[in-house]
Amino acid sequence: MKAPVRVAVTGAAGQISYSLLFRIAAGQMLGEDQPVILQLLEITPALGALEGVAMELDDCAFPLLAGIVQTDDPNVAFKDADYALLVGARPRGPGMERKDLLEANAAIFSVQGKAINDNASPDIKVLVVGNPANTNALIAQRNAPNINPRQFTAMTRLDHNRAMTQLAQKTGTTINDVKKMTIWGNHSSTQYPDLHHATVNGKTAIDMVDQAWYEGTYIPEVQQRGAAIIKARGASSAASAANAAIAHMRSWALGTAEGDWVSMGVYSDGSYGIAEGLIYSYPCVCKNGDWEIVQGLEVNDFSRDRMAATEQELAEERDAVSHLLP
Length: 326
Ligand SMILES: NC(=O)C1=CN([C@@H]2O[C@H](COP(=O)(O)OP(=O)(O)OC[C@H]3O[C@@H](n4cnc5c(N)ncnc54)[C@H](O)[C@@H]3O)[C@@H](O)[C@H]2O)C=CC1
Ligand SMILES: O=C([O-])CC(=O)C(=O)O
Known about the structure:
It comes from Porticoccus litoralis. The chain is α/β, with parallel strands linked by helices. It has helices spanning about 15-25, 45-60, 75, 100-120, 135-140, 155-170, 210-225, 225-235, 240-255, 300-320, and strands at about 5-10, 35-40, 65-70, 85, 125-130, 150-155, 180, 180-185, 190-195, 200, 205, 260-265, 280-285, 290-295. The strands form 4 sheets. The protein has a 6-stranded parallel sheet. Strands 7-10-11 form a 3-stranded antiparallel sheet.
């Protein structure tokens, strides 16, 4: 048996975590041979509810669950953490954009970035789920100067999965036939799901659908899917978000499949002309516990405009929180 790794999860008594923690403890994120210690962070008033979640985790008798820490202190939650899933943040309601949450949520990520910097394993892998995810990841990253910025990522895997399913349904195939999906940019309504490189059974996806459907139906449906879930459910996506978080971390830790890639919000090195230092969603390949942006994809004018629009929004969000960016 491997030695246990420490996985910090914030917002651990919230709705996403209720779908997430049990799957992590079952080995679905890091592998069925990897014991985990869960280090769970909540705000003080939610510690009672968190105790209930911890009791249920105990009651599952997971062989891989090597310990549970419950705390309202970020310094305790991130102590020696090898992985962190930053979920704890306010969700949006009907009629809101995710960036409307910036004011309510941004401060959480400066505090947690500092606590990660001061306490976590220097090799920690961080995934930000709480919205607006890309800019919250930027805030956490900038408040952790001793940690390589590549170790802070934001979740666009849910968008990636949504884009795969919508394409499979349109083409009468299954998601097993869809490869090389790309979400560019922000986890927001400006994100750009790109079908120019995606394939369905080896054929280029953009050639299998008509441009009017792509522009008028597909792109807006993927961009607005989160809002559609809120409208239908009266609460934002939870199980599918947890599933995407598991998939993001699993790809990063254990690698992506040969001949395929995933979408991850990562620290921009300037690839594809995107401003350096933004947390921007790119197509990524993962190997040996590290990610790499897929290079050399051809970008036409249609794609370039959309990639620039979502970059512009990220630059505006960054400027709106400049007081939290040391
Ligand atoms: N990136 C993505 O694709 C997605 C992101 N989200 C976002 O994930 C976040 C969480 O969503 P839910 O679990 O549905 O919300 P929720 O409201 O059910 O749970 C959030 C939990 O975070 C806790 N919390 C608040 N401030 C905290 C802090 N400073 N430290 C630790 N815990 C704190 C709350 O007490 C609450 O228990 C929201 O911001 C939501 O918009 C949701 C779906 C997809
Ligand atoms: O839409 C929301 O507010 C929650 C979320 O990020 C998503 O479902 O993609």
